[in-house]
Each structure stands twice: as structure tokens, then as C-alpha cells.
């Protein structure tokens, strides 16, 4: 076995051991629970989960949440990249918008749910707006930082080649900022998974957040567990997909300006 | 008549900063290889940046071929010490094409010219690599090719080999002498390595310790090329310039001591 394959084997073994220990601990704790209804075992959770898959409810909820996340994330990323580039490149734009950026980024989407419901109702638009909100600031902030950190010599070189400001912007600033944009988007995606639950808890009749929240009505704790597990798994898989695709497609921009994340 | 003229250059950062350069004057002939040496912090790079048009002097003026310098321009291309002026998302070939792309040269034409320039600096076969995949010496060669492709009459080299290992540095120095001999460009080259200065230059300007620095003495290097580092004449010249330079270095050290 090659050292690389050996390393991978060791890693997989480690993960497997970790999962096994947690499952056993979960099983043990649920067996000691006074009211098993409140703390279902892994096996009964799995059982309920398989039932939900067969009935089609789980796939439907999963697609509902994923669709909202993708729409809100795409909208928020587009706005964030545009705003961040503007703020980074044009001082007046930065002076005007930065106070709001710095103020709003500490306000969770959760705080806006009542207002957003009043404005947009309880439909898809409200949820997509909340998800876009949770995405836009972190993407804008990282993009802005990226624009301001383009290495000076890259700009100087372009200037001495006779590049106009517009050419420097499109040929140097934007490509040099891609890695910062991606960092912001990756962080934002994590936020989206948190916000989607909040949005669906409050006002929805579909989605994983709804599934989790509806469990309390009939004391079906298994439903909540299934929802939590699927949501976590979805987050993990989405992050991996995002990372692998961006590395495949945009590797040349990675670390173009020694990019570091900014939260 | 002088091709490049620095006349009465003062430079300070901001309105209140200390004068870094005071009364700097220099005339360079067309096609001359001029090397500037001096103790660290004496403002060598500032002089280069002023000629490049990146910094504006507080007083005085710089003329290139009779025209005052008002900003960066294609006739004066800088080769930076750090390779961070290369664009990491572009291949070596695309980096060399970049100035032509800015100029609006057609893709086929610029590709051909960039290939030629890379060949000239010995990077044939590395066209498709990105800067991250190239060694320090190769990255500096890409910078050189990127400057050559424009056929700029003036090259400004800011310790371009300073971060390279000794062997690579010597090879690149030899290649630069050959290229400069062929292209007849006017070169301002900054270094703190006296061997490098003597090996390359037609004339060497020694700067005084900063602040308030200026040129202390200009030494003609009359050794025939190719120069031999071990030769007696080379050694004598080294000693002579070293004497001048070390007085200035000692002044820097004394000042640092008195600050302690």
C-alpha cells in the first residue's frame, strides 16, 4: 500500500471509530432515558427516517429547503460580490455603505423574521429574502477586503503597461479578488443552513426546519432527530461540493492575493 | 546629451515627513547600464519609483528623452524584487502576453511574441505553468520576458535577483548582460551586492546614507565584458567602491547605535 493510501485508510478508520463511539453512546443514553419518547434511540430514528423517505415526505422537505438555500444564497452572493467590489474600489461607496455593513452584520436574520413576514407574507419570497440577507454581508465584507488587498505591484505593473483604470479593474482587481469572494461565500453557506431552519420554523409548511418543528405536536422526537441529521448531512455535502467544484474550476484564482478569510 | 535626467530631486512622504532624498541629480546616457548601490534605507528604490512614475518627487524633475515624467508609462518597465507583480491566475505565457493584451494586440500575434520573449529568457517549455509552479529564478525570468515583449527603451530593475540563491543569481546576471547587449536598452539597476554591480554596470552610483541621501560618487566600470569576477582589476575596483560605500554604512550603524 502506498503511503497516501495508507494515510487515507487511517483517516477513514478514525472517522469510522468516531461514528461508532457516538452511536453507541447515543444508544446507551437513550436506553437510560426515563421517557424513551423524549430521547429516541439511533435505531428508532433510523426506522422513522426510512419511513419518511418511503412516504416521500423527507425528499420533499429536503428539496424545499435546498431550493430556498440555493436561491437565497445565489441572490445574496450576487448582491454581496457587487456591493463588496463597489465598496472596495470606490471610496465614496465604501464610506456610504460601510456603517450599514458593520451594523447589520451583527443582526441575525432571526431578528428580521417578523418584519419580513409582514412585508413579504409567509411565502417563498420571505424565506429567500432572509437567506439572501444572511449571505450578503459576509460576502460583501470578504470581497471588499479582497479588493483592497490586491498586491500593489500587480497594479503598478499594469499601470506601467498603460492599462486604464477600467482595464486594471477587470484584468487585475477582479481576478485577484476571486479567492476572497469564494471564502465569503463558503462562510455564508454555513449561515444559510442555520437561517433556513429559523425561517421554516416560524412560517412554513415544508422544509427540514418545518419537519423538525412539527415533531413537537405529536411528541415525535424521532422526526426532529431525522431532520437534524439530514440537515447536518446536507450542509456537510454542500460544503464539500462547493469546495471541490470551486477548486476544480477556479483553482488558478486560489490564493491569488494570499487571500485569508475575514469574518 | 543625456537620455534620462534627474534634476534636483527632493522626496518626502506626505507634507510633514522627513526628507528621504535631497538634491538627487543624475544623467544617464541612452543605452547605458547604470547601477545604484547604497546602504539599506538610503532611498534607492524611491529613486527608481520616481523614474517609474509611481511616486512624484516633492521637488525637482525627471526627464526621459526630454519629456518630463508624469506617471507610469510603457517606455519604462519595472522588474520588481518580489515576484508578486506576476498574475498568479495566468500562465507564464499569459503573463508575458498581458502587456500586449492591454495594448490591444491580436491574440495570435501577442501569443507569438510572448513565446519568443519566453524563449529569449530561457523559459521554453514552461509556457503553460502558473507562477506558483515556477521557482524564484524562473519567476524573475518571466518578469524579464514581460518587460522585453514590450520592447521598452528603459528597464528599471529593483534588486531583481536579491531573493535568489547565489548560483541562480550569477546565471541570471550573465544572461542579463547578454540580453542588454543585444537590446541596447537603458537600464537602471538597484542592488546592494557590489559584485553584481561591478559585473553588470557601465557606471555605478554610490548613494549616501539616508535620510537626505543623494549620490556620493559615480564610478566608471571600464573592465571589458565578459567580466571575470576573480580578476585583479575586478578586485581592485571592488575595494575602491567598497571603501566609499563602507563609510556610508558605518554612518548608518553609528546612527543606529546612538539611538539605542
What does this structure look like?
The complex is a heterodimer of chains A (263) and B (260). In chain A, helix 2 packs across helix 10 and helix 8 (165-202) runs parallel beside helix 9 (208-214). Chain A has ten helices and no strands. Chain A folds into two domains: 1-32; 40-253, MetI-like fold, CATH 1.10.3720.10. Chain A has helices at residues 3-32, 42-55, 57-89, 91-104, 109-120, 124-148, 152-160, 165-202, 208-214, 221-250. Chain A is an all-alpha fold and 263 residues long. Chain A is flat, with a radius of gyration of 23 Å. Helices cover 81% and strands 0% of the residues of chain A. By secondary structure, chain B is of the alpha/beta class. Chain B has a single domain (31-54, 70-205, 216-259), classed as P-loop containing nucleotide triphosphate hydrolases (Rossmann fold, 3-Layer(aba) Sandwich), CATH 3.40.50.300. Helix content of chain B is 39%, strand content 21%. Chain B contains seven helices and ten strands. A six-stranded mixed β-sheet of chain B has the order 6-7-8-3-9-10, sandwiched between helices. In chain B, strand 9 (203-207) and strand 10 form a beta hairpin. In chain B, helix 3 (107-120) packs across helix 4 and helix 6 crosses helix 7 (232-259). The N and C termini of chain B lie far apart (48 Å). The interface between A and B is medium-sized, with 21 and 28 residues.
Amino acid at each position: 500500500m502506498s503511503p497516501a493510501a495508507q494515510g487515507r485508510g487511517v483517516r477513514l478508520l478514525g472517522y469510522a471509530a468516531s461514528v461508532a463511539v457516538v452511536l453507541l453512546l447515543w444508544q446507551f443514553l437513550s436506553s437510560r432515558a426515563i421517557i424513551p419518547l423524549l430521547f429516541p434511540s439511533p435505531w428508532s430514528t433510523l426506522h422513522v427516517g426510512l419511513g419518511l423517505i418511503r412516504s416521500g415526505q423527507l425528499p420533499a422537505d429536503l428539496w424545499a429547503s435546498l431550493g430556498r438555500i440555493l436561491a437565497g444564497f445565489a441572490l445574496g452572493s450576487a448582491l454581496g460580490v457587487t456591493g463588496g467590489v463597489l465598496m472596495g474600489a470606490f471610496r465614496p461607496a465604501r464610506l456610504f455603505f460601510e456603517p450599514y455593513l458593520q451594523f447589520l452584520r451583527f443582526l441575525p436574520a432571526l431578528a428580521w423574521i417578523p418584519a419580513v413576514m409582514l412585508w413579504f407574507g409567509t411565502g417563498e419570497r420571505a424565506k429567500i429574502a432572509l437567506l439572501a440577507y444572511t449571505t450578503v454581508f459576509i460576502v460583501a465584507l470578504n470581497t471588499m477586503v479582497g479588493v483592497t488587498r490586491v498586491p500593489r505591484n500587480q497594479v503598478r505593473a499594469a499601470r506601467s503597461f498603460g492599462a486604464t483604470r477600467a482595464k486594471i479593474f477587470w484584468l487585475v482587481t477582479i481576478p485577484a479578488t476571486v479567492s476572497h469572494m469564494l471564502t465569503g461565500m463558503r462562510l455564508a453557506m454555513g449561515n444559510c443552513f442555520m437561517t433556513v431552519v429559523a425561517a421554516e420554523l416560524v412560517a412554513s409548511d415544508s422544509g427540514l426546519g418545518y419537519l423538525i418543528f412539527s415533531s413537537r405536536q405529536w411528541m415525535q422526537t424521532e422526526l426532529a432527530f431525522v431532520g437534524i441529521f439530514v440537515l447536518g448531512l446536507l450542509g456537510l455535502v454542500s460544503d464539500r461540493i462547493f469546495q471541490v467544484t470551486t477548486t476544480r474550476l477556479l483553482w488558478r484564482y486560489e490564493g491569488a492575493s494570499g487571500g485569508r478569510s475575514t469574518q | 546629451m543625456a537620455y534620462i535626467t534627474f534634476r534636483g530631486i527632493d522626496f518626502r512622504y506626505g507634507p510633514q515627513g522627513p526628507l528621504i532624498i535631497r538634491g538627487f541629480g543624475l544623467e544617464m546616457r541612452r543605452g547605458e547600464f547604470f547601477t545604484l548601490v547604497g546602504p539599506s534605507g538610503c532611498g534607492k528604490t524611491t529613486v527608481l519609483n520616481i523614474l517609474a512614475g509611481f511616486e512624484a518627487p516633492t521637488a525637482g524633475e525627471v526627464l526621459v528623452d526630454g519629456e518630463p515624467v508624469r506617471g507610469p508609462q510603457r517606455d519604462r518597465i519595472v522588474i520588481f524584487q518580489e515576484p508578486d507583480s506576476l498574475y498568479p491566475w495566468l500562465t507564464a505565457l499569459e503573463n508575458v502576453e498581458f502587456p500586449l493584451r492591454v495594448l490591444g494586440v491580436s491574440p495570435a500575434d501577442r501569443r507569438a511574441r510572448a513565446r519568443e520573449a519566453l524563449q529569449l529568457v530561457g523559459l521554453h517549455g514552461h509556457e503553460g505553468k502558473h507562477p506558483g509552479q515556477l521557482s524564484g529564478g524562473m519567476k524573475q525570468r518571466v518578469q524579464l520576458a514581460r518587460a522585453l515583449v514590450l520592447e521598452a527603451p528603459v528597464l528599471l530593475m529593483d534588486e531583481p535577483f536579491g531573493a535568489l540563491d547565489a548560483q541562480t543569481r550569477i546565471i541570471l546576471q550573465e544572461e542579463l548582460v547578454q540580453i542588454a547587449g543585444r537590446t541596447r536598452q537603458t537600464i537602471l539597476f538597484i542592488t546592494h551586492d557590489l559584485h553584481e554591480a561591478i559585473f553588470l554596470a557601465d557606471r555605478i552610483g554610490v548613494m549616501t546614507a539616508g535620510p537626505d541621501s543623494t549620490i556620493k560618487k559615480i564610478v566608471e566600470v571600464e573592465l571589458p565584458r565578459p567580466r571575470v569576477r576573480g580578476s585583479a582589476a575586478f578586485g581592485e575596483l571592488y575595494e575602491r567602491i567598497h571603501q566609499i560605500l563602507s563609510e556610508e554604512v558605518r554612518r548608518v550603524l553609528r546612527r543606529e547605535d546612538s539611538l539605542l
